[in-house]
């Protein structure tokens, strides 16, 4: 058992399909570093159900990245709360938040941050190894996920030997391997050509149909946004239905 697994467990009852998976109440984030306070999120409310896909759009500087960081427990709110699977993230300690993130939150970013020196299967297996699973078991599970995203034949290749779309598929497999409660995606098709982006979109449809998680997808791409169950626009520190 790794030290990671010896920490206090973060026990949560996982909401089922149709139940609220992500909830923000009165969520505020104020940056106070500059000469004047900058209120980026202002008592924002948000609720996403298990199995639901929500796109968040908004102009540059409207606070999308700030919101994603709060939803993923990478930053703390100035006020209000984020609840994932009915757990208030700000109430978790430093050790617990890391563990909670590993268990419950999957991240996919435009620049996928795959580790260059590891193969695709090793990259996907890593979150399970961190969790204390044996390398063999973790890689077996990783292979299943790679097969789901159509990347099994390329499993032994390193990121530098894969195309942009293939790397993004690996990143999606890595985010899904822990069976997260919440998938956070930041421009998941941002640096891909149209055909590759379309194939990632198709893949997301398949995954959403079977996944038990809530999806929050930040994008500037109107096509990707329109493809989700709901589109919310971040403006003036709050979310508005499109
Ligand atoms: N750590 C920080 N300290 C102070 N101000 C910040 C900090 N991070 C972001 N900001 C400011 O907060 C506002 C929102 O930034 P954020 O990155 O969340 O916007 P965004 O909607 O993701 O923008 P983009 O679409 O351009 O990526 C911006 O005005 C930005 O300058």
From TrEMBL:
GO terms for molecular function: ATP binding; ATP hydrolysis activity; transmembrane transporter activity. GO terms for cellular component: plasma membrane. Signal peptide: none annotated. GO terms for biological process: lipoprotein localization to outer membrane; protein localization to outer membrane. InterPro entries: AAA+_ATPase, ABC_transporter-like_ATP-bd, ABC_transporter-like_CS, ABC_transpr_LolD-like, MacB-like_ATP-bd, P-loop_NTPase. It comes from the Bacteria. The keyword Mitochondrion does not apply. Keywords: ATP-binding, Cell membrane, Lipoprotein, Membrane, Nucleotide-binding, Translocase, Transport. Residues 22-242 form the ABC transporter domain. The keyword NADP does not apply. Belongs to the ABC transporter superfamily. PANTHER family: IMPORT ATP-BINDING PROTEIN, LIPOPROTEIN-RELEASING SYSTEM ATP-BINDING PROTEIN LOLD. This is Lipoprotein-releasing system ATP-binding protein. It comes from Halomonas cupida. The gene is lolD.
């Amino acid at each position: 058992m790794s030290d990671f697994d010896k920490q206090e467990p973060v026990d949560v009852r996982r909401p089922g399909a149709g139940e609220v998976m992500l909830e923000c109440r009165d969520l505020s984030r104020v940056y106070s570093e500059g000469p004047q306070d900058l209120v980026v999120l202002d008592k924002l409310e948000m609720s996403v159900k298990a199995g639901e896909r929500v796109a968040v759009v908004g102009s540059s500087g409207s606070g999308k990245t700030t919101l994603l960081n709060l939803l993923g427990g990478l930053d703390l709110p100035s006020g209000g709360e984020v609840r994932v699977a009915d757990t208030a993230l700000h109430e978790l300690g430093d050790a617990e938040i890391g563990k909670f993130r590993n268990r419950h939150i999957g991240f996919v970013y435009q620049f996928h941050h795959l580790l260059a020196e590891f193969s695709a299967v090793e990259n996907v297996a890593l979150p399970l190894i961190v969790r204390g699973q044996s390398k063999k078991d973790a890689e077996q599970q990783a292979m299943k996920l790679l097969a789901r995203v159509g990347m099994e034949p390329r499993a032994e290749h390193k990121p530098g030997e894969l195309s942009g779309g293939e790397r993004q598929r690996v990143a999606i497999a890595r985010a899904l391997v822990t069976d997260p409660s919440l998938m956070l995606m930041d421009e998941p098709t941002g640096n891909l050509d149209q055909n590759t982006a379309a194939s990632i979109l198709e893949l997301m449809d398949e995954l959403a149909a079977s996944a038990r998680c809530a999806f929050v997808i930040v994008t500037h791409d109107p096509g990707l946004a329109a493809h989700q169950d709901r589109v919310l626009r971040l403006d003036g520190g709050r979310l508005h239905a499109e």
